[in-house]
Amino acid sequence: MTALHDAGELHPAPGAARRNPTRAAPQPDSAAEPARPVVATPDDLDEQTLVVRAQEGDVRAFETLARRHQVALYRLAVRVLGNRADAEDALQDGLLDAWRRIGSFRGEASFSTWLYRIVTNRCLGLLRRTRPAVPVADPTEAGDVVGARSASPERQAELDAGMTALAAALTGLPHDQRVCFVLRELEGLGYAEIAEITGARETTVRGRIHRARKALAEVMRPWR
Amino acid sequence: MALTPDTGTPDTGTPDTGTPDTRTPYTRTPGAVEAHVPVEPLACGRDAAEVWDHTEAGTLDEHERDCPHCGAAAADARGLEAMVGRLAQEPLVPPATVVDRVVGAVLAELRPRDLIPLDSPHGPAALDAAAAAAVLRGVVDAMAGMRARSCRIARPSSSDGRPGPAEVAMTVTARFGVDLSSTTARVRQMVLAAGEQALGVPVARVDIEVVDVFLDEPGPAR
């Protein structure tokens, strides 16, 4: 065995020490640690730890991040693209982009904002390739995302029809308006974050959302 | 259906202050001075987009509640809100196969980026640094109260050109309340042993930096 020249240095970050005022009194480890599951799995880890690990090439850490965020990203893609098949493609390609570019994530935005941006760009790319600029709403395709429901009273049928109509009207909005509206009204994000995701100014985002709301309110008037 | 084309520039002529408004409309005080340009000024002077936000947030002020112009905007907002709320609640879950396919593609295109040379009597051999780091992180993760974050392993050449002992730099997070000096000493011992026994690489130096603390139930950082 090679001799150990240097046992290294121990330098807790100042922040960690500051936030841990109880460390002044050293105590035996056994007393400090009551019985609890010991081995940390990726699911136990905080987001920043997972991001750093993924940036250093840890595929399992990336997989955990992908599983944590996939539902929100998929929801966004389904609502923007109007159907599940394209949304799956956008999610899959977006996650692959995220892996390839994770080294460039610097933490200026939150990781979820960064992922939303990547998937949004994938969606817009798909829309540009596959749809006219202002597509005609296709009720059958929009209905695809509303999902099947069990037989129910008249009001339920009415609401289902309303939702189908709303989903169809969404696909009739210009792409930029649709993305901003979905992020705001269906994902519940703030204007500043939507501006970060779309790369548009906040005033532009506000304008797009307002125009989308007005157009949809007009279409949805019969269902009130 | 009549849909307005998006000009993308509702604020022509007004310079952007460049300062993002970090307040969400939900917490915005009604009537407060706004740092943005009105999207759709109403005859009463209010911004229809603001009234819409306030309606959704349930923060309409007295004027907005009484004014007929604001009232019309609020009625539109309420009319859409119920249906949008239902749409937002529709459960949409991607098939599990999506992430599986992504991980499969990631693994398929994985190429060793950094290699750690191994001492081998049978010719050149090397270890992928990412895999080696995963082994050392696993050692730390298995210790109570500690989790590895970054792990970088370097094996600089010694004076005779052969690979010298490895140097490991780790950042870790510690459970709130653990004794950092004794625990990090244990981390160092474990990493030294794992380098030797699991990786077959002598380790000369282990730098450990405690960068964060966590509470007992960390879960996803949200």
What does this structure look like?
Chain B: Residues 1-32 are annotated as: Disordered. Chain B: It comes from Pseudonocardia sulfidoxydans NBRC 16205. Chain B: This is Asp23/Gls24 family envelope stress response protein. Chain B: Residues 1-31 have a biased composition (Low complexity). Chain A: InterPro entries: RNA_pol_sigma-70-like, RNA_pol_sigma-70_dom, RNA_pol_sigma70_r2, RNA_pol_sigma70_r4_t2, RNA_pol_sigma_r2, RNA_pol_sigma_r3/r4-like, WH-like_DNA-bd_sf. The complex is a heterodimer of chains A (224) and B (222). Chain A has one domain: Rna Polymerase Sigma Factor, Chain: A, CATH 1.10.1740.10. Chain A contains eleven helices and no strands. Chain A has helices at residues 14-18, 29-32, 47-55, 59-81, 84-101, 111-130, 139-146, 154-172, 175-186, 191-198, 202-219. In chain A, α5 packs across α6 (111-130) and α9 crosses α11. The longest helix of chain A is centred in the first third of the chain and has 23 residues, at 59-81. By secondary structure, chain B is α+β, with helices and mostly antiparallel strands. Chain B has two domains: 25-89, no CATH class; 112-214, GMP Synthetase, Chain A, domain 3 (2-Layer Sandwich). Chain B is built from six helices and five strands, in the order ααααββαββαβ. A three-stranded mixed beta sheet of chain B has the order 3-4-5, covered by helices on one side. Chain B has a two-stranded antiparallel sheet with strand order 1-2. The longest helix of chain B is centred in the middle third of the chain and has 22 residues, at 68-89. The radius of gyration of chain B is 30 Å and the shape is elongated. At the A-B interface, α1, α3, α4, α5 and α8 of A face α1, α3, α4, α5 and β3 of B.
